[in-house]
Each structure stands twice: as structure tokens, then as C-alpha cells.
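seq as requested:
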Amino acid sequence: MKVRRLILLVLLVAGLTLPARALPLVADLSSHLVAITTGFTGSEVLMFGAIEEPGDIVVVVRGPESEQRVMRKSRVAGIWMNTASVVYRDVPRFYAIASNRPLNEIAEESILQNQEFGVSRLRFTPRDSDRLDPEDAGKWRRALIRRKQEAGLYSRSTGRVSILSDRLFRTSVYLPTNVPTGIYSAEIYLLQDGQVVNAQSTPLAVSKVGIEADLYAFAYDRPALYGLVAVLTALMAGWFAHLAFRRN
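C-alpha cells:
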């Protein structure tokens, strides 16, 4: 596998040395499909490529966006229960970022904000933003990010992009065992003098395969029948266990 990746990198550089085919940025992934099977324990995806001229590289991997509900618990009559919630729209279910230098050394804050470089700069708003004052909105937002980071779905720090000879670059992103399924985007940005001069986006599919995929599809397409089968299976397991203990 390492030899294959090295050959790909050499071919990329060889292509860049031809003036007629020179491209500012060429990048790819080690795999465009992450298959989730029964024994899935996480996966590491390698991103690599080459640049025509020296610059800074920022790599962002984002998961599919969806609504996310954040709950707040309070103690009522001695019992902890959910007493408030906020629903955020367009929230990436996964987010990781890597760069060859600290982000604040690569570009001005306005550029970082515009490109959403970093977890703290992600743009997602509550569904009922008019009923939240700025202080409360900030607390709810930080709670959502903290929950994602605790689940390992948002990066706590910026990863490292390695650049060799000002031409070749590589980095890797780890997808944990609880990574959501869907179509992700691996975005590679080339910056020069603090400005984005080129970018490339490559799709990355995270999908269940095998018997787990069949069970997932069955549960999603026919939830009532799936629930009935699950109840019957539990009853049969309990009945067989009862028979086994009675014989003993």
C-alpha cells in the first residue's frame, strides 16, 4: 500500500512538471469508501497530493449536515429531567481540520471565518434564533460543540499536514467507530499570502455493508415489522433460556 501511494505521488509530481498540464493543486484520497461492517473499529483516511508553487495547505473533512437537538437538564422536585432544548440547522455531523501551520499564521481572521476553518468558526444557527439572546445562544452553541467533541466527531485541535520539498503534501483523518453514514466531502485548500488561490473537493462515502447494512435497511424501510421481529426474537431467546435453566 505504501509503495502504491508513493507511485501515485510521483506521478502527480511528474504531471506537474509538464507546462501544458501544470495545475496549481492536485489531490486525492487513499480510499473513497469507508465500509462499516460488524467488526468496524474505526478507519484512517489518507489525503495526499502536490502543488505547483509553495503555499499553505488546509484540509477539511465534513460529514453530512442535519438538524441537531441540544437538551438542557434541570432538577425538578429532586429529579433531573430535560427542561429546555434548542434545535440547530445545517450542523455537520463530523468535522476535522488539518493544516501545515497554525491557522492564525496562515490567514487573517476574516478569511478563516469566511471559509469556516476551525470548529469555532462553523456556521450553524438555531431554528428559533429570535427567542435566544446572544449570551444564551453562545452557551447552547458551545454545548453542541462540546458534545460532538466528547463523541469524537469534532476535532479538538488542528491536525498536521506534512509538506515535502514545497511540492508534496499528505495528512490523515481518523473516523471513529461511531462515525455517521453518508456522503462526506474532503476539501483541500491552497493558500498563498493569506488568500485562497485554489481548492479541490473530493467525495468520501461512509456506508454500512454486509449483514449490518441489510439489517439497517430493514429497520429503516419497515420499522413496524422490524420491531415485531425484535420482540419475537427476544421472547424466543428468553423461552430457550428458561428451558435450559429448568433442565439444570
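The chain is about 30% helix and 40% strand.
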